[in-house]
Amino acid sequence: MVQDVEPGTVDSDIDWWAKFYFSCGQSERSGSYETKGYEKLEVMKGCLEDEARFSGFRDLVDTATLYRGHGDQAQEAGEFKIY
Question: Residue 2 has what pLDDT?
Answer without folding.
Answer: 54
